Amino acid sequence: MRKLALVLLLIPLASACTWVKMAPGAKDVRVARADQNLSACAKRGEVSVSVKNRLGPYDRNDLKVRDELETLARNEAPSLGADTVQPKNQPVDGEQRFLAFRCGTASVSTRAPSAPAAAEGEAETYPIAD
Q1: Could you give phi then psi for residue 125, rounded to 5 degrees?
Q2: So what's the pLDDT on residue 119?
Q3: Percentage with pLDDT > 70 across the chain
């Protein structure tokens, strides 16, 4: 009974852990926003990545799952000769597809799309860096 209680206690803690590590060369891979214009870049392919989004009956933290998917895509990019990845779709059940591009020194549009002004009492966010 003690072992079962210990396992049940550890599952929620493990669900918050990050299991994916950055590979050599992946730290130089840029992640573009899904709406970012990469027409000045050469498309190098597509990457499909997946991680566990559930541990038993527990859902893992969505932000951690997204972070791990992004890291896996960045890990794959150098093997395609890509220096930039862009999400092709939203994650579904721990799986996501990314487009891989070679941008080099190409000018990449970093302007955020215009959005309606926030209503009174709502927060408005801006990216601080690309």
Answers
A1: -115, 150
A2: 59
A3: 67
- E-strand ranges in 7-83 read 30-31, 42-50, 54-55, 58-59
88: nearest Cα among 44, 32, 128: 32
State both tokens at 56. Answer: 């038993």
Nearest-angstrom CA–CA distance, 44 and 81: 7
| Residue/partner pairs of 69-73 with CB below 8 Å, 24 or more apart | 69/94, 69/95, 69/96, 70/31, 71/20, 71/21, 71/22, 71/26, 72/20, 72/47, 73/31, 73/47, 73/49, 73/98, 73/100
Q: What number is the average pLDDT over the span 41-59? A: 91
Tokens of 14: 């493990």
Q: What percent of the chain has pLDDT over 90?
A: 52
d(CA 106, CA 36): 14
pLDDT in tens, 66-97: 999 999 999 999 999 999 999 999 999 999 99
